Amino acid sequence: MALVTQLEASALDRLMPMHLILDAQGIITKIGPTLCKLRGESAMLGHNFFDVFDLRDDGRKSANTIIPDDKKLYMTFKSGVSTPLKGIATPMANSTDMLLNLSFGISVVDAVHDYRLTAGDFAATDLAIEMLYLVEAKSAVLEETKQLNTRLQGAKVAAEEQAYTDTLTGLKNRRAMDHVLGRMIRAGVPFALMHIDLDYFKDVNDTLGHAAGDVVLQNVAKVLVDETRAEDLVARVGGDEFIVVMHKMTDADQLMKVAERIIAQLEIPVPFNDTVCRISGSVGITTTEQYDQIDAEQMMHNADTALYASKHQGRACANFYVAGMPTLADQDLPNAAARR
Fold first, then answer.
1. Other C-beta atoms lying within 10 Å of the C-beta of residue 149
2. Domains 6-122 and 174-339 share a fold
3. Which of 48, 183, 198, 280 has the fewest CB atoms nearer than 10 Å to its CB?
4. CATH of 6-122, one of 3.30.43.10, 3.30.450.260, 3.40.718.10, 3.40.50.150
5. Which SMART domains does the UniProt record give (predicted)?
């Protein structure tokens, strides 16, 4: 190896941190600090250049040495991460040694990630530093944009959920029910539609106030959720009117058992301050099996008709819709208050 003063060695390390020096036999006699960081001194120092690197063969090597010229060299490591490198070779003055200065080129971003490089691993004048700053700035912007999109998506989901939710009870609302019914009908999914109307709810509001009525409605919501399955839809569609859509359940016996459980739970007094609120529930049921052509509005109307029949029978009971069943206008109810 040609004599290199301490100043020359430190200058090479500072100005060309990815350099290496080869002797006349192609043995690596010196390596820059950044290049050393990529593989370690013991993996390169004292080894033949061609045992460490794969050089793209374009005729610029003779035996174990590289023939220097003005063209760039392209190479990769033989082992480990095959980081693409490019460089240029030049003979050293007054010596048979050869100096190679290497760089990452466009692979610098991957190299920084693979080897955990920092700005201190590059020459101060290396444009890679500016490129890394740009990449870092771009990454920061992309991350901020990603977080903003996540927040916007979360806000959108929350807004959509709010639009489909009854704020007092936490149940789905009429809009959500219409959306689900339309989707199930288009998909040909069988279901039952259960219309529930509270009995004597107006009495609670009139005697104990709307605060008591709100407590009752919240309790009704809990009963309906507890007595149905996760795949069923429970919606509040009016002041004291509720719809339960029973997913893939059309068996009359099963549906009647569900309705009876709901009615029994609704009759349990609801505590409010130092008194209790007493209500019951009337139920009307219809299923998709009763129709050749499924129409949500028709099913709602028919479930409502069956509900009127339950009111007519004295409340706190359930009825299935039957073709020809009299509507409210046909039924002998004392007055409109019979539906309360």
1. 10
2. no
3. 183
4. 3.30.450.260
5. GGDEF
The closest of 30, 33, 27 to 3, measured between CA atoms, is: 30
Nearest to 299 by CA among 181, 188, 209: 181
Q: Write out the H or E segment, with its range, that includes residue 288.
A: none
Tell me yes or no: is domain 174-339 CATH 3.30.70.270.
Answer: yes
Cα–Cα distance measured from residue 89 to residue 102, given in angstroms and rounded to the nearest whole number: 9
Q: What is the pLDDT along the chain (340 residues), one digit of tens a residue?
A: 444 544 477 888 888 898 999 998 889 999 999 888 888 888 999 999 989 998 876 666 665 667 777 678 888 898 888 888 988 888 887 778 889 999 887 778 778 777 888 878 888 777 776 767 676 777 778 888 888 888 888 777 766 667 889 999 999 999 999 999 999 999 999 999 999 999 999 999 999 999 999 999 999 999 999 999 999 999 999 899 999 999 999 999 999 999 999 999 999 999 999 999 999 999 999 999 999 999 999 999 999 999 999 999 999 999 999 988 877 655 554 444 444 5
Helix, strand counts (H, E) of the chain: 11, 15
Q: Is 93 helix (H, G, I), strand (E, B) or coil?
A: coil
Domain residue spans of the chain:
6-122, 126-163, 174-339
Token representation of residue 141: 């912007």
Q: For 254, what's the count of Cα atoms within 13 Å in the CB-facing half-sphere?
A: 11
